[in-house]
Amino acid sequence: MTKPSVPVGIICSQSGPYQAMGREILKSAMMAVDEINNHAEFEFAIAPHIRDPRGIVSEYHTVCDDLIRNVGVKHIIGCYTSASRKQVLPIVERTDRLLWYPARYEGFECSDNVMYVGASPNHNVLPLVRYVLDNLSREIFCVGSNYVWTWETNRVTRELVSAADGHILAERLLELGESAVGHIVEEIVRRKPPIVFNTLVGSSSYDFIRAFHAGTKAAGLQIPMLSCSLCEPELAIVGPASAGCITSSAYFESIRLPENRAFVARWKARYGEESSPSVDGQSAYVAVYLLARALQRAATSDIAEVRRAAAGYRYNSPQGPVWIDGGNNHCVLTPRLAVSNPQGQFDIFWEADAPVKPDPYLTQLDVAVSPLRDASAGVLPNAPHLRVVK
Amino acid sequence: MSRPSSFSLRGRKALVAIKDERDATIVRRQFERLGIEGVAWTPAEPVGFTPDLSLIDDEFLPLLQPAQRASLARSPVIALLGTETPSRLKLVFELDPASFLIKPLRSAGIYAALVMAFERSERTSELKQQILKLEHRLKSRRVVLAAVLQVMHLHALAEPAAFALIRKAAMEQRKTIEELSAEITAKGMLPRAAG
Q1: Which of residues 129-168 of A touch B (CB under 8 A)?
Q2: Per-residue pLDDT tens for A126-181?
Q3: For A294, left (φ over 0), alpha (ψ -120 to 50), or beta?
Q4: A 294-353 residues with CB < 8 A to B
């Protein structure tokens, strides 16, 4: 018997400056869709309607409008940058639809019509900067793409660094897709900062990492680089120059959980042994499953019912247990820190002891207290916030 | 030692006067996310505490009791506007709002309105202090002028030299020019530095 189908929109750019991530999101979302459609547990099938805004910000509005007006979807998975999400937000709010947004973002938003499945700023920026302040340096040189993700990440970084009596040595910004990175690398080589924080996205980031690696190597320098977004497929794109980057993320392919081992095996069987899932892709996979389970529990695609059914419902995903915090529609998840290795993988050296509540407005942020010593931010109040992963 | 982030609103207490239950629910939910305690209020009741901030629905305007207006004036006010008609805006002006939100409310905009209201209130407070200081100095100008004339006469000096002498003496005695001028006019001479 054919299962009834639920139309779901999928918006991800397959071309443009961050096409690589868009393709990863689509691959992961489609893997989840096919698994759900072939699984007896689900009493419905998801009918995906894929749209490609080609990395053009205004196109996100157009394709979202088309999905809602012409296809009649109630649920949409996708968008990558905050600029793209902000294009879709007014339409989903006006028409009372639900956007399942997979990417980590800078926070300071809380729409009832968005499920924020990716990391909140307290999941990625805070552990990374505090690790650096506690262990490496109080002086940071920032390089980023000129948009809201970098602006806010730099603002939080500056606040934490200033509270620790440190300094932001520079904030250098490039337009999205910009490839002229030589002048920044020259400045870094000349000034020799102890740390470089890279919040560039897409091709700009890949160009910068290669030039940075070549420039510092030629000058005999070893300067650690930080990232909140670098992932395995990007390590493959960048090549050997990508090794040694300290990265904060909720997902790495190297997570040693049975759910992740099974996920990676299915991924490789589908997309090839050399292929790797990414953090945003895995998050899109999680988003499809969270949606499907909420649809199943609600027994309707009605927005209010699905939102209620999704809140607090724990899913043992590849990245570990996750659930939507009903108070703010953001995902409770486990932050991790890792360093990229020459084999194109990440060696995880820190992870939170328990899933951490999302704090999109950084309401609980105390700028002078390290989470290494502060247990209050975690779900488990008596557990140490972070532990070393061996 | 810990302190909240400069943009964290955690621990603030707000007076909330909102008629529509849907709008009130949106504010309650957003306050919970931001760590703000909201206390519901209607103009029929006395204000039983000193809020850090007030959200006042234009449906409750005008506030008839001067005591209520005075009470609200002690902290920043955010006006909730249902209409942009000049007649309604004139009523809202009476609250001297530091920020505003358009009804029906959405979660988006509330955080920005709160941050702007606190920032505006702080800057306005600084400006008021500055104005008070300048008004005081303006009033003192008459005394300074009298002191300059007195020193010009006593020491046979031109006006710039007399003023320079007063300023030097004020600096030596760690007093303001206005304070020293008041002493000169009272004593009829330049007071000597103590010690």
Answers
A1: 156, 159, 163
A2: 999 999 999 999 999 999 999 888 999 999 999 999 999 999 999 999 998 899 99
A3: alpha
A4: 327-328
pLDDT of residue B1: 60
pLDDT of residue A302: 95
Domains of chain B: 13-108 (3.40.50.2300), 130-187 (1.10.10.10)
User: Please, are residues A350 and A127 in contact by the beta-carbon 8 Å criterion?
Assistant: yes
pTM of the model: 0.84
Q: How many cross-chain Cβ pairs, A to B, lie less than 8 Å apart?
A: 55
Task: In whole angstroms, give the CA distance from residue A128 to residue B5.
Answer: 17
Distances, alpha carbon B102 to alpha carbons B32, B57, B95, B118, in Å: 20, 10, 16, 18
Whether B2 and A368 lie within 8 Å, measured CB to CB: yes
Mean pLDDT score, B66-86: 89
Per the CB < 8 A criterion, the answer to whether A153 and A128 are in contact is no
Distance in Å, alpha carbon of B5 to nearest chain A alpha carbon: 6
Which candidate in B22, B33, B105 is best for mutational testing of the A interface (most A CBs within 10 A)? B33
Which of these, A95, A96, A94, A67, lies nearest to A79 by C-alpha position? A67
CB contact under 8 A, A363 and B106: no
